[in-house]
Amino acid sequence: MLFIHVNHPWPNINSVLFRNFAHVIHILIHSVMRKIRTIEMKRLTVEEYHQAEKLPLIVVLDDVRSMYNIGSVFRTSDAFRVEAVYLCGICQTPPSTEIHKTALGAEESVSWRYFKTALEAVGELKKAGYTVLSVEQVEHSTKLQTFVPQRGLKYAVVLGNEVKGVHQEVVDASDGCLEIPQLGTKHSMNVSVTAGIIIYKFAEKLILI
Amino acid sequence: MLFIHVNHPWPNINSVLFRNFAHVIHILIHSVMRKIRTIEMKRLTVEEYHQAEKLPLIVVLDDVRSMYNIGSVFRTSDAFRVEAVYLCGICQTPPSTEIHKTALGAEESVSWRYFKTALEAVGELKKAGYTVLSVEQVEHSTKLQTFVPQRGLKYAVVLGNEVKGVHQEVVDASDGCLEIPQLGTKHSMNVSVTAGIIIYKFAEKLILI
Q1: Residue B36 has what DSSP assignment?
Q2: CA–CA min distance B20, chain A (Å)
Q3: Predicted model pTM
Q4: Contacts of B106 in chain A (CB under 8 A)
Q5: ipTM score over 0.90, yes or no
Q6: Alpha helix (H) ranges present in chain B?
């Protein structure tokens, strides 16, 4: 057996030196991963947001029932400067106490419009040169992990009702479908979580990298 | 100016040939992007899920207050076969009507454990060889768009309270911090949406591609 004798290099625990040493370590740790305070984040004001360059993406909600889901989509859209949210069919619109509860004011920064049907919205978007992609589990879909949005194009993504998804006629009118593969027991994911994953993918490839 | 005369190849609109032609086009569109029915999705049963290979990722929730957010994290974790969800501090645990409302049964498929504090969970995870990453806006964070999880490593990500985020001492105990850049007016994103973006990133890089 090998014994190693070490002259312990640490100063006496009561010494001023030790207390300074501990203080320096504390500062070092905090300077490495100190949480940034809200006032340090320097987020945009609503006016600055309206002027700022946007992600070339419009999020179309086709008959989304839950106002909390709609509000959540607004909040995520604000975070990645989505160009606009189009609310269609049974979607409620701001001002709404329920939408505000999850949007937390993002319904003031993010532009939105209402359409009687998502089909009408998609028709207008296609005429305006947008590439329209429905987010659905369909045959011959493009899996999200293989999808890379192209710079220079304008995109719109359609997300559907919590139970029924995107209407088949809206899928048919789209330029293609994006699908998030699911490997578990459930048949679908929450629409606001799905929107978050999709919007982040566009933001990551077009403005964050 | 150049004029091109084209012999229009379409058959007369009233002819049988035209109607057959339109019918074929209709079938073609539907065969290309037909929505897949629930019974065709062939999702796993809960028993099959328990046996299936998992994503090497544990999701740690540090004082998440909303049971709807907890349930939503379960639902997303099921979709990407997350190894487990660790519920810490004030997090409620299944069985719970509120958690079930957004988990929709995923609390039965996804493994979970409860810890009095996230710090305790992180300590155990580090001892077990997990790389622990807090999801926070901190100085010197790793931005999610530059992060690539390494194959062969086991990961845990910590997500914090809706208002206060991850505790500073949990951040300090982590091996690093992941940050999702935010470009809008709001200071943070919804915790279940954030979890969705993070979990998808691991799934995309480790099991989907």
Answers
A1: P
A2: 19
A3: 0.86
A4: 184-186
A5: no
A6: 16-33, 46-51, 67-79, 97-103, 106-109, 118-127, 168-173, 191-203
